[in-house]
Design brief:
The protein has about 450 residues and is an alpha+beta fold. The chain has ten helices and 13 strands. The strands form three sheets. A five-stranded antiparallel sheet has the order 1-5-4-2-3. Strands 7-9-10-12-11 form a five-stranded mixed sheet, with helices on one face. A hairpin with a 5-residue loop joins β11 and β12.
Length: about 450
C-alpha cells in the first residue's frame, strides 16, 4: 500500500484540527443557546407564577401550567422522592410516562441527566416566598406543552449547523492552500536535486532558499553532495594513482624475479636481487597505505619520533638511482643544517619518491638539485631541475606523467597540511617546493 503524500497528510491534519474546533465551538454555542432558551422560559414562567399566586392571572391558567397549595403532589404525580421546600425556581426532568424524575440543581446533575438518565420531559417548579399569604403557593409548568421560544431556537440551531458546515468547507479550502504554499519550496528543492549534478561543481542549493527549515535542508544536501563528490573524486584518484604508481615497483619486481633465476649460483647477485625485490615490495606497501589514507580522507599518521629529513631524501634518491643505473640524470642534495622533524616517514618517502622519479622520467640527462632549507616556521624542500619544465597548458594539474605524479603530491600535501608550490626554476626547468609546518628541532652541534 502506497503511503499518503505529505501534502495529503498536511491537509488532513488541518481539516481534522478545524473540524475539532468547529465541534468545540458548536458544542459551546449549543450550550449557550440552550441556556438562553432556558432563561427565556424561566423569566416567562416566574412572571406567570407570580401572577397566579397573587391572583392576577384570571380564572384560566396557561396551557401546561397547574397551581397547588404545596409540592407534595409531586411524589404521586412523577415519583419525585426529593420534594423541594425552599422558595425559588427548580428544574425537573422526567421520563415520558412520569415514573422517574429528578431535580437538577448543579452542573453535575445536568451531566448525569445528559449522559446517563436521558430524561426528555422538562418541567419548571416555582415555590412562592414566605411573605405570600394566599392558598396557592406552588406552580408547575410542563414545558413540553408550552411553546415560548422553540421556533426561534430551532432557527438558531439551523443557522449554527449551516455555519458549522460552511466553516468545515472553508477549512478544506484553507488546508489545500496551506499545503500547497508550505510544500512549494519542498517541490522546488526536489526538482533542483533531481536535475543538478551530484558533485562539487553543481550550484549550491541553499543560496536559492531562505534560512528556514527548507534552507537548512538545502544546506545539508549541499554538504552531502560535496562530500559525495569528494568521495567519488578520491575514488577516481585512487584508481589512477594505483595504476600509475604501482606500475614501476611491479615491473621492478618482475624483472628481479627473472634475474633471480639467472643468478642461482651467485650468492652475492642473489642477495642483491633479493634486496631489490624487498625494496620494491616495501615501496608498494607504502604506496598502497598512502592511497588508502587519501581515499578515506584521513590525515597520515604522525611519526612517533623525530626523523632526519635529509637522510630520508638521500635514501629515496639512492633507491631510484639503483633502479635507473644507466640514466644520465645527476642528483645533488644540499641542506643548510641537520633537521630532526616529527613526521611520518612513509608519507615523506612517497612524496620524495614521486618528485624524484618524475625527474628521471621527464628531465632526461640534466641535473636535479634538492635543497633543504629550514627557518623558525617551517622546513622547505625545493626540487629544481634544468629540464624542459611544465607544458604551458591551463588547469590545476599538468597532463601526462607529471600530472598524475604531481596530483598525488598535491593531495598528499593537502592531507598533511603542507604547502605545495609549482613553478619555473632559474634555469628554465621545473621548480617544486614543499613547505612542511610541524614540530622539529635542530640537533646540537656536538
Amino acid at each position: 500500500m502506497r503511503p499518503p503524500r505529505l501534502e495529503s497528510r498536511i491537509r488532513l491534519l488541518i481539516v481534522c484540527f478545524a473540524a475539532l474546533i468547529i465541534l468545540v465551538v458548536s458544542g459551546i454555542g449549543w450550550i449557550i443557546l440552550s441556556d438562553a432558551e432556558d432563561a427565556i422560559h424561566d423569566r416567562y414562567f416566574i412572571k406567570t407564577a407570580e401572577d397566579i399566586v397573587t391572583d392576577r392571572s384570571g380564572a384560566t391558567l396557561p396551557a401546561g401550567v397547574t397551581a397547588h397549595a404545596d409540592a407534595s403532589f409531586l411524589m404521586e404525580k412523577m415519583r419525585l422522592h426529593e420534594i423541594p421546600s425552599a422558595p425559588g425556581l427548580y428544574e425537573i426532568f422526567a421520563n415520558d410516562d412520569l415514573t422517574r424524575s429528578v431535580v437538577v440543581r448543579t452542573f453535575f446533575d445536568r451531566l448525569q441527566l445528559w449522559i446517563i438518565l436521558g430524561y426528555e420531559r422538562e418541567f419548571r417548579l416555582w415555590i412562592a416566598p414566605e411573605e405570600c399569604t394566599g392558598n396557592i403557593r406552588v406552580v408547575l409548568a410542563d414545558l413540553s406543552t408550552t411553546e415560548l421560544s422553540e421556533a426561534e431556537t430551532d432557527k438558531a440551531r439551523e443557522r449554527l449547523l449551516i455555519l458549522s458546515a460552511l466553516l468545515f468547507l472553508l477549512a478544506l479550502g484553507i488546508g489545500q492552500l496551506i499545503s500547497q504554499w508550505a510544500l512549494k519550496p519542498v517541490r522546488e528543492l526536489t526538482r533542483r536535486v533531481l536535475h543538478d549534478r551530484a558533485d562539487t561543481q553543481a550550484s549550491l542549493l541553499h543560496k536559492d532558499f531562505p534560512s528556514d527549515e527548507i534552507g537548512q535542508l538545502a544546506s545539508a544536501l549541499d554538504d552531502y553532495r560535496q562530500r559525495l563528490g569528494a568521495a567519488l573524486l578520491r575514488e577516481r584518484h585512487f584508481l589512477s594513482d594505483c595504476s600509475h604508481e604501482l606500475r614501476t615497483p611491479i615491473a621492478t619486481l618482475k624483472s628481479a624475479l627473472d634475474l633471480l633465476d639467472q643468478a642461482a649460483d651467485n650468492a652475492i647477485s642473489r642477495d642483491r636481487i633479493t634486496e631489490r625485490m624487498r625494496r620494491s615490495a616495501q615501496r608498494m606497501e607504502r604506496l598502497v597505505r598512502t592511497f588508502l589514507l587519501l581515499a578515506r580522507e584521513r590525515r597520515p599518521p604522525v611519526s612517533a619520533g623525530s626523523v632526519n629529513i635529509e637522510k630520508i631524501v638521500r635514501s629515496v634518491a639512492d633507491e631510484l638511482s639503483a633502479l635507473h643505473p644507466e640514466h644520465p640524470l645527476k642528483i645533488t642534495i644540499q641542506s643548510d643544517r641537520e633537521v630532526m622533524h616529527e613526521i611520518d616517514t612513509e608519507t615523506l618517502t612517497v612524496l620524495c619518491h614521486n618528485l624524484i622519479e618524475n625527474a628521471y622520467l621527464h628531465v632526461g640527462g640534466g641535473l636535479l638539485e634538492i635543497t633543504i632549507r629550514s627557518n623558525a616556521e617551517s622546513v622547505n624542500l625545493v626540487f629544481q631541475d634544468d629540464g624542459p619544465g611544465f607544458p604551458e597548458l591551463p588547469g590545476p594539474t599538468v597532463p601526462g606523467g607529471y600530472g598524475i605524479g604531481l596530483s598525488l603530491v598535491e593531495r598528499l600535501c593537502k592531507a598533511c597540511g603542507w604547502t605545495f608550490i609549482r613553478g619555473s626554476g632559474q634555469r628554465g626547468g621545473a621548480r617544486l617546493e614543499v613547505g612542511i609546518h610541524a614540530r622539529y628541532h635542530f640537533p646540537d652541534a656536538s
